[in-house]
Amino acid sequence: MNELIAATDRVLLRQDYPGGYTLLRVTTELSAKILPGHALRIDGALWPVLQPAPAPAWVECLQRDVAPPDPDHPLSVSGPFGAPFDLDAATPRALLFADNDGLAQIVFLARMLRARQPRVKPFAIFDLQPPLPFRPPPSKIITPGLPAGVIAALPLLEDWNIPNRIACPCGDQAGCFEGKATELARGWLDISQGVADVTAFACGGHALLDAVRELADRYQLPRQTRAAVGAR
After folding, report:
1. Predicted TM-score (pTM) above 0.90
2. Which phi and psi angles does 63 have, rounded to 5°?
């Protein structure tokens, strides 16, 4: 069962981004309990956790199309909610997937995997519809098995030296793959020297999760899929 603990906390930071996204940093003693895949209920709305900071006792959450709380009033924060990813089941390589609603959970997971011992090598593919909450830089990380022109990346993961690419099925975003994330992943899997050490992780809506399950079955990959908070 999910543990439910209520607290009275406050907003430390709020940043709004294109696409209706809001980054929220709030104080909470629950930060020490947070794992990748968790969400917190903040003033009645569920917010996926992007990163916790247990020592200063705050968390950053990322959500879209949800009215943020008033920064001038105390908050009611409870949780954590949701089924976290099982990091102990990670294999030497991790193939990560997220759509617009699963961004926070998969970025959090990538952060944790890159720091694990024994080492885990993540490769993330984001299946996103514009407008994006960030400006994708061209990736400097060469990743075999991908089309030459597919170079758009998520800035934070690029800074962490985690290979990643963006799929944009609508084709409106320069440098993005014009198709589904799982279609792009097949090229990478097909040239990999065996896939026995690859685990697929996904967070998002039903369409993405179904596609990842089908991909994992095709390549006989272990998988962990989680429905995103507020997934469409």
Report:
1. yes
2. -145, 160
What is the three-class DSSP state of 53?
strand
**Amino acid, single-letter form, for residue 162:** I
Half-sphere exposure of 106 (CA within 13 A, CB side): 30
184 within 8 A of 167, measured Cβ to Cβ: yes
Q: Is 23 within 8 Å of 14 (Cβ atoms)?
A: yes
Reported in sequence order, the residue ranges of 67-212 that DSSP labels E, i.e. its strands, are 75-81, 93-99, 121-127, 164-167, 198-204
Domain boundaries for CATH 3.40.50.80 within the chain: 87-227
Q: Classify domain 7-81 at the CATH class level.
A: mainly beta
Distance CA 117, CA 204 (A): 27
- Which CATH architecture best describes the domain 87-227? 3-Layer(aba) Sandwich (3.40)
- pLDDT tens for each residue of 113-148: 998 888 899 999 999 998 888 999 999 999 989 998
> φ, ψ for residue 165 (rounded to 5)?
-145, 165
**CATH 2.40.30.10 occupies which residues in the chain?**
7-81
Rounded to the nearest 5 degrees, what angle is found at the Cα of 185, between the Cα atoms of 19 and 169? 35
Strands 21-27 and 58-64 turn out to be: antiparallel
Give the three-class secondary structure for 187. Answer: helix
